[in-house]
Amino acid sequence: MRPSLPRLHAITDERIARRPDLDRVVAELGTIGPDLALHARGRALTGREQYELAVRLSARPHDRPPVRLFVNDRLDVALAAQAVGVQLRRDGLPVSAARRLRGDWWIGRSVHSLDEARAALAQGADYLVAGPMYATDTHPGSPLLPQDSLRAIARLGAPVVAIGGITADRIAGLRAAGVYGVAAIRALWDAPHPARAAHALLAALAPR
């Protein structure tokens, strides 16, 4: 049986993959539990580097539950690292290709418009990562996804994970638009206390 889709997604990039304190932050985030997914992502990483990143993200003490590992774009790495899900770029491999490899994966697609969301769901995506919602240093200058478009995407019925400039005080508006969860990079990996930051985001996501 496939585990539930986490509501909070901590996504890496090349800079995070090479941080000397990565293992410490992973250990702290690993205390959160099944509502947090860790994403091995890094477009400039080699396959070996992304695999090694995925292995480090999956590390856990024996007294803690398994990490919910997702891998972005690299299906070979996802298979090798025994990920529970994959996230595909809007111009990446077809959802059907991932589904043939592992029928029990959570398969998501990154989308930036309502038309892209419709196309992703027509291909069989399980969830959508929509954004960017707010200005972010990770993708400076990228066009923002309007709130009306986010609402329309959420009305399509699949779980929607919002990304881009996510903070706890912005989540109420995102929840009102119908999002299932959120994804973050700097808000989690660069936080002074990553676990505390994760708890704050999850608390804001909790149904009222």
Describe this structure in words.
- With 208 residues, the protein is of the alpha/beta class.
- The chain has one domain (8-205): TIM Barrel (Alpha-Beta Barrel), CATH 3.20.20.70.
- 37% of the residues lie in helices and 17% in strands.
- It has ten helices and eight strands.
- The chain has helices at residues 14-17, 22-29, 47-58, 75-80, 95-101, 114-122, 147-154, 171-176, 186-189, 194-205, and strands at residues 8-11, 36-40, 68-72, 85-88, 106-111, 127-130, 160-163, 181-184.
- The protein has an eight-stranded parallel β-barrel with strand order 1-2-3-4-5-6-7-8, surrounded by five helices.
- The longest helix has 12 residues, at 47-58.
- The chain is globular.
- The chain starts with 7 loop residues before the first strand and ends with a helix.
Summarize the structure.
The protein is built from ten helices and eight strands. With 208 residues, the protein is α/β, with parallel strands linked by helices. The protein has an eight-stranded parallel β-barrel, surrounded by five helices.
